[in-house]
Each structure stands twice: as C-alpha cells, then as structure tokens.
Design a protein that fits this description.
mainly beta; six-stranded antiparallel β-barrel; three-stranded antiparallel beta sheet; 2 helices
Length: about 190
Amino acid sequence: MQIIPGRYLYKIWTIKINHSKNKHAYNYFSITDITNYIRCPKTETYIKLTDASGQQIKGDTMVRGFERSITALSFTSGGKDNGQLSFSMNITGAPADLKREMTNGRFFPDGTLTVTQPNGFGAPSISCMIKMENIRVNNCAESMDCNGVMTTIAVITATRIGWTYFQQDRSGKLAVSRKDGFDNDSGKEWTNF
C-alpha cells in the first residue's frame, strides 16, 4: 500500500493498493471517499403491503427477512398526524398492483414500512418500523429524474399508523426507544401495534 498526497486546493490523500500479481494493476481510493463511506452508512427502506385477499404485493427486494417487499428509494411522511406516506420505488410489478387497488377503490388491510441501517455487528438492524392499517392508495405515477432513470412515486394514506423507534445497546440488542400512533377514524392515539 502506498499513500500519495493529493495535488488539489485542499489535501486529499490517495491510497494505492495492488491486489494482483501484476505490479501495474492498482486500485485507487481517496481518503475522503473512505471516510465518507464510513460516516454515511447506507440506510435501506422496505415496504410490505398485503391486499384484501391476504396476498403480499410482490416487490423487488431479495434481502433476507424482507423478501418480496418493495424497496423504497426514498420516503416522506405528512398529512394529518403523519398518516400519509409518499415513497419512490423502482418500476416493477408492484406499481401495477397499487394502481389496480387505487382504481378499484380498495384498501390494503395492513402494511409495514421498515427502515434498516448498518449496525457494526454484521446484519443491518431495524431503526424504525411503521405499522399501517386500512391503507388507501391516493396516487401512483411514474416520473423520470434528471439522470434519465424512471421511478414510480406512490402516495398512500393509512387510517391507523404507528411508529416504533429502536435503539441498539452496546451488545447489539435492539430495544424499543419510543412508540407513537394515531387512529384517524376515532381521532385518538393508537397503541395496539
């Protein structure tokens, strides 16, 4: 391994690593790239929706524990008591199922949005879980971003929504740190999730 100082206005160090027997084959990594990777671990968001017949909407996730879930590229919450979620996803079969339910005016009986992040102990850990009931699809449409990549953006509203936040102790065990929920039908707090 060889460390090479950068030649820019600010100091960037480059690590030159030879992984092969060919003495001219090197991989270059800047220290800023490595520290940004360490400081900014990738958070993943998975959405699991079940239709009225009890079938899970088939998403594109292959991650263990979240198989067939929808991978959300981004999501935001809003509306009354954060009962409305907007999320973007890759174009797969899931948007067609969402549009079918929206067109037919049917509700999804339940759904879960799970946010995971690397934990330093191997497999990612759950940092937040949103439990939803009586979910209506308000909107589902395709869009193209500035890079020319098409995605689907869906907006859903849940009659009952519960947010559970988790915290990890030093041994890696998860514990509930906070729970909040709201039932829009009754206008009261929802705690049965």
